[in-house]
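User: Okay, second chain of the day. Same drill as before: sequence in, structure tokens out.
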Amino acid sequence: MRVIVEVYREAGGRLTGAVHHPDGSRDPFASTLDLLRVLEALDLSRRADSTPHPRRVMTSSSTAPSSTATPATTQSGRSRRELSATVKLARLSGLTGILFAALFVVALVLVHTTPTLSATDADITAFYTSDSTAFVTVGIYLIPLAGIAFLWHSHTTRLLIKSRTPSPSAIPDGLQLVSGILFVVLLFAGTASAGSVALLKDLTGAPLPSADFARGMLAVGYGMVFVYALRGAGMYALTTTNLLRQAGIMPQWLAVVSYLVAAFLLLSTLMHPAAMLLFPTWVVIAGLVIFIRAGRVAEPATPERQSA
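Assistant: Same drill. Structure tokens below.
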């Protein structure tokens, strides 16, 4: 029996990859010990012919025997019936991005029904004594769901990138992870502050605070969302675009648009939902493009191959 071993050496020196069997199946491994376990489990009693074959190691510059093409051919035919892990991750990244955008837009619109910072004391008091606070409360409950969907989207996007580039650039990879988490944390804190008075009114019978206090809580919420969380979103868009380009997943035209969106999010001084809504719009567009291109996403082009 002849198998093909794909080996990747990560930045830390760890070996990862997968063992491809003649029937098209594959056993991934994440360390040298995992590889040994996979090789020990092979049924080496099955031979393509009666002549024992010595184990041979080939680099990418070696000329492969014609029989080594058989597993690849079998796997190519099998791929029409089963989606590869890369394709599944691409589609999951697109779908979770759309889910995040839908929840986020609805929640942000509801929370923004609160009075603006320039509203008079009479307008603020009238709002918090009316039934309109129920919309804010609903939005507060939707924000955590949007954040969870974003974390799901972010993680699947990272897995998609690593399926194409097992060792992505360390700086953008780390910044993408941190900026995504910061965006969610600041979004949670900011919307909680902006909706705290409405939540107090709808869920308790406690007396309402003064208009000045309500305006102060709104100001804290606006600052966290439109100053800090918006910058986290911009950094996430910038680093994600860089990583997707390196992985060969994002087309050139979308990369240019993404860099412009990231620059706007990083430099914008607008205290309006339109500025923040640009981020989920970018997530949806990028997710749709990745979803559509998922069927054409290829496996990494330059693995180290071994044949045993």
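Confidence is low (pLDDT under 50) at residues 46-73, 77-82, 298-308.

User: Thanks, on to the next one.
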